[in-house]
Each structure stands twice: as structure tokens, then as C-alpha cells.
Amino acid sequence: MSNRTDSNIYTILFAIAMVIVVGGLLAFTASALRPKIDNNERLEKQQNILYAMGVNANDESSAIFVSTDEAPELFAKYITKQLVIQGDDISENTEAYLIDVKKEQTSAKAGNERKLPLFIGNKDGKTFYIAPIRGKGLWDAIWAYVAMDENMVVQGAYFDHKGETAGLGANIKQRYFMDDFIGENLMNNGSFKGIAVAKGNNDPKNTDKNDNEVDAIAGATITGDGVSAMLKSELRQYVSYFENLKNN
Amino acid sequence: MGLLSKKDAALIKDPLADNNPITIQVLGICSALAITAELEAAIVMSISVLFVLGIGNVVISLMRNIIPGKIRIIVQLIVVAALVIIVDQVLKAFAYELSKTLSVFVGLIITNCIIMGRFEAFALANGPWRSFLDGIGNSLGYGVILIIVAFFRELLGAGTLLGFKVLGDPIEKTGAYALGYENNGFMLLAPMALIVVGIIIWIQRSRNKALIEDN
């Protein structure tokens, strides 16, 4: 290395120039691409919600969404109502699916009444109630869209994650895991119990749909516990809505 | 003589065998443990590292005469982080599905010591073309080990390869499972990756005694 690059002045100037160039480049890329990325994320939410209520292009073993071209049209067709539940107040909002669940969780912690989005879908004469939920896995966030019937029996679910271990926790978005939830009852003898991701429940084929348990993924205990905790704490908040539904 | 001179060809070949980044240089071990539970993830990671290390090495090599020695590690880190983030953003905008598959690896690539290791050991002292070849060679050597480890972990741990049930269905008890075979769940956990890498190192050094260090 020459002496020129060793001087303190040079080092400082280089660092400043580097920060400006790289920072500018990143800021430019981020803001130039933001509208496109936002649109992709919006379409993904629609795809996820549709997936949970069984509007998807699944083949025998893998989970496949409807195409992004069709998503807005199908979303308008199958999702009949979008509700925002805030305490006893229930209002309709056609952009409820854009509500950021993470922000709502944070604002609820600060003592505000949380906005709970709920999407009501109709397919072949059957009504689905789809709730977006969010929790913690081993490394980072996990989230899901859970479609239920009016008795809080799961009709379909889509799980996703930000950074769970590939081959282990990441498998929560595999069909064999998600499909196990179909038909599972969140209630037990009239009270809310949730669905636990259980090790050694002696029911790997998941034939017992009333045990409030699905079979866990080997090597993904903490992610599985995260899924159980998320389902329990998040879906519990929707119980009063479903109770009112029955009483009216 | 082919496309590459003998010296240049060695840059590609050596990391595949006697100067392998994982088994000899012991670089990139963390990701070799973290993402080898299934073959697909290992392949995706290998391809990503190929891109980042190939391009990153060229960028660092072009900058090698102007990078101040005192802050070179930080400069390298910024270059690789900026590269990876820009690629990630572009993919998110134009190939969203692909970006979701790759997003898990973004953090792993930035902090992958094989990247910094090659910047520091090679690109800072060599021209862009040779650095490019070094990047390609080392990421291929890295990829080979990742794929070998993932092959055994997925096959013995889950009985599948690339998601296909090659040994039959463990729940329905078909194929090998009908004969009483069981998956070894321990293969899916990180310690077994270390042991598999250890076995590869053992085999390699027993075949080429020159690799054994004197104590």
C-alpha cells in the first residue's frame, strides 16, 4: 500500500465519499423501486388470503397461489366483506387487508384498542372468515392467514415466515404442515383453546380433528411453539366476534 | 491451452480440491451448518454466493489501489452489503417470487466469512479478471461441499431429495419404511452438519497427506 492511502485525511475523505455514494445509491434504488415493491406486496396479501380460503392453484403436493394477474379479480369476486373490528365497533373497509398487523400489535401494547381485520369470503355457497395473524418464530417473524367457519373450525391456513431455518422451521409453509390444520377445531367444549403444534401426539396422520393438536415438524420445536402461541393469542381476540355472530 | 492459462485455470480448480474454502481454508462454515438441512436451500445458497463473490471480488479488485488500509474491512463489508441489498430490492420489484425464496439468504451472504475471506486474501492483491476467477472457483468449491452435506442430511434425515420422497413415505410406511427403516432426525440438526463436514475433511486429508499440518 502506498503512503497516500495510509494518511488519516485520505481515510476520512474516503469514508465520507463512500458513505455518500453508497447511501445515495441505496436510497435511490429503494425509492425508485418502492411503488413496484408495494404493489407486489399488496398482490401477495390478496394471494395469501385467497389461498387460505381454498382459492389456489395447488397441485398434489405443493402450495401454489393463483397468479398475480388474476389475484385482484378473484379477490374482488370471493371476498365479499372486509371488516375492521375495534372493540365493540365493527366497520367495513375495503382496504382492511392492507392493515399492518405488526403496527396494530405495537399500538395495542401502548394501550390503544387494536384494529382487528377480518375478511369474509364466499366460495360455493360456503362462508369463510379469514383472520391475518402474526407471531414470533425462532429467528424472526412468522405470520399466517387462517380461514375459519362460523364455529371457529379451521377451513384452511397459509403460514409464512421471514427467516426460519431452511429445511426445518421454514417447512411451516409446506402443504403437509398447513393442510393438517384443515378441520381442526379452535374451540374445545365451548371455550377457546387454540391449536397446539404438538410433539408425540400419536396422531401423525392427524385423523383426530378435535384434539386441538397437529403434528409438529421434527427439528423445528421453537418455530412450532411460536405457531401454537401465535394461534392462541391472536385468534382468541376474534372469539367475541364469533360469539356475537351466533347470538344474532 | 484452452481458454484460460494454466495459472488462471488453477484459480478455478484448486478451490474444488486441495484448497477448498470449507474443508481447507475453513471459511463459510456457519452457512454450511445453517442451510444444509435440505438440498434445495444448499443449491440456492451456492448460486447466490457464486454471483455475489464473483461480482464482489471484481469490485474490490478494481478498488484495491484506492481503499485505505486502515478501514479496508469496513469498506469490504459495505461493498458486499450494498451489492446484496440492491440485488434483493431489484428482485423484489421484478421477480417477487424468487426474492421470497432468496430473502432468507441475504443476511447469511452478507456475513458469510468466505466473501470477506476472499476479498481480503485475494481481491485486494490481484487484478479484476483473476479475482473474478478466484471468486467463481471458491464459490464452486464452497457449493460442492454444501451440496454434498445437504445431500446426506436431507436423505438420511428426512428421507427426501429436493423434496421428493425417494425412500418412500414414513407415515404411510411404504418403500424402505415398510422394511422398518427410520429417518434419523438428528441429521437435520446443526451438529450433524459439523460431523458430516468433519468426515469430508477426514477423507480428503487421508487421501492427500500433504494437507495434514505438522504439529
Provide tags for this entry.
heterodimer, A: 248 residues, alpha+beta, six-stranded antiparallel β-sheet, two-stranded antiparallel sheet, 36% helix, 23% strand, B: 215 residues, mainly alpha, 8 helices, 0% strand, globular
Largest interface: A-B, 35 and 39 residues
Overall average residue pLDDT of chain A: 89
Q: Which bin fits the share of residues in helices of chain A?
A: 25-40%
Return the string of H and E elements of chain A.
Answer: HHEEHEEEEHEEEEHH
| Shape descriptor of chain B | globular
Strand content of chain A: 15-25%
Strand content of chain B: under 5%
Largest sheet of chain B: none
Beta-strand segment tally of chain A: 10
InterPro entries (chain A): FMN-bd, NqrC
Transmembrane segments (chain A): 12-33
Family (chain A): Belongs to the NqrC family.
Keywords (chain A): Cell inner membrane, Cell membrane, Flavoprotein, FMN, Ion transport, Membrane, NAD, Phosphoprotein, Sodium, Sodium transport, Translocase, Transmembrane, Transmembrane helix, Transport, Ubiquinone
Describe this structure as you would to a colleague.
Chain B: Keywords: Cell inner membrane, Cell membrane, Ion transport, Membrane, NAD, Sodium, Sodium transport, Translocase, Transmembrane, Transmembrane helix, Transport, Ubiquinone. Chain B: It is a multi-pass membrane protein. Chain B: It catalyses: a ubiquinone + n Na(+)(in) + NADH + H(+) = a ubiquinol + n Na(+)(out) + NAD(+). Chain B: Composed of six subunits; NqrA, NqrB, NqrC, NqrD, NqrE and NqrF. Chain B: It is found in: Cell membrane; Endomembrane system. Chain A: Its main location: membrane. The complex is a heterodimer of chains A (about 250) and B (about 220). Chain A is of the alpha+beta class and about 250 residues long. Chain A has one domain. In chain A, about 35% of the residues lie in helices and about 25% in strands. In chain A, the strands form three sheets. In chain A, strands 2-1-3-4-5-6 form a six-stranded antiparallel sheet. In chain A, a hairpin with a 2-residue loop joins strand 7 and strand 8 (about 190). The N and C termini of chain A lie far apart (about 80 Å). The model of chain A has no long low-confidence stretch (mean pLDDT about 90). The termini of chain B are far apart. Chain B is an all-alpha fold. Chain B has helices at about 5-15, 30-35, 40-65, 70-95, 95-110, 115-120, 130-160, 190-205. Chains A and B meet through helix 1 of A and helix 4, helix 5 and helix 7 of B.
